């Protein structure tokens, strides 16, 4: 029989339940509010009837279809690339279709809630292969670290080749002025350094507590999954696939330039080299906006793209039409590929379960001398 003290310690307090409920609500509510608020602001800034007219009369849907096909291709390449990391971390090879499905599902779920897809794909692989979740999370962190490096390199390239456009952004918009001010202000970097020092000190002084030991153990397993990037087989192929992913991402933006008369002018009748510089600027602005918590970039991405196009003389209404059409049809293909992934998982569930059981049986069978 449990003592009253044991019961009181094991049962969560009402205050804990309230905080947990508030935390769960805020996780879903904040992205919805961010997306909703920015969309309301967007519609306040543009003439929505003019946007509707542009969409009805001025879209070449062939290029929108091409953009959707490129989106699917980028996810297939990302899935294959992640498979290289998973195998390097000791996880058995999985079919390329399953690798792609893990990405299809992740991006579809990110439309519901930011980073929900990342959590889902790690859990999916963990359950499918019967491996440690923290190891898979480590490979996911490595996957995203590669993306971070690519974004940094592309931003540097953009600053070099599109310096006048970046200067116009920093001068014309309060956001640009704020970015310029805070990144050149030493206070920001001092605060970051102090926070890091406090975390390191807390880890050192409380290293013998159960919580910190558990956190450190999980971090080590994550590091093992991440560090495979530095010693795995197939590094050359990984780099090629990484380049392929980001070339696809760029062309998702660039191909859509041909779908609208006003952006097509940036390609055919402008001083910019085939519209590559505007395409790069729009692409970088859109990529950076994904750091804002929102439902699949809805709101932040649209506004970032509209800002970027305005640097090249595109009106707010035209920029809004471009961003709304591109985002909407990309969302459609993400949902469609996510549905395909759900059917694939259901159809293969029993076979995967049998394979996992057989693998576990082999692992537990004692070897004979």
Counting DSSP E segments of at least 2 residues, the number of strands comes to 0
Structural class: mainly alpha
Radius of gyration: 24 Å
Low-confidence stretches: 1-10
Q: Between the first and last Cα atoms, what is the distance in angstroms?
A: 47 Å
Sheet having the most strands = none
Helix run count: 16
The portion of residues forming beta strands comes to under 5%
> What are the secondary-structure elements, in order, as H or E?
HHHHHHHHHHHHHHHH
Helix content: over 70%
- Per the principal axes of the C-alpha atoms, what is the gross shape? globular
Overall pLDDT, averaged?
80
Q: How many domains, in number, for the residues?
A: 1
Task: Record keyword descriptors for this entry.
mainly alpha; 0% strand; 369 residues; globular
Report on this structure.
The chain has 369 residues and is mainly alpha-helical. It has one domain (60-350). It has 16 helices and no strands. The chain has helices at residues 4-10, 14-45, 48-57, 61-88, 96-110, 116-129, 133-161, 163-172, 174-183, 186-205, 210-231, 235-257, 261-268, 276-289, 300-310, 316-364. The longest helix has 49 residues, at 316-364. The radius of gyration is 24 Å and the shape is globular. Mean pLDDT is 80; it is low at 1-10.
SSE arrangement:
Layout (H helix, E strand, L loop, with lengths): L3 H7 L3 H32 L2 H10 L3 H28 L7 H15 L5 H14 L3 H29 L1 H10 L1 H10 L2 H20 L4 H22 L3 H23 L3 H8 L7 H14 L10 H11 L5 H49 L5
Helix pairs in contact: 3-16, 4-5, 4-7, 4-12, 4-16, 5-6, 5-16, 6-7, 7-11, 7-14, 8-9, 12-14, 14-15, 15-16
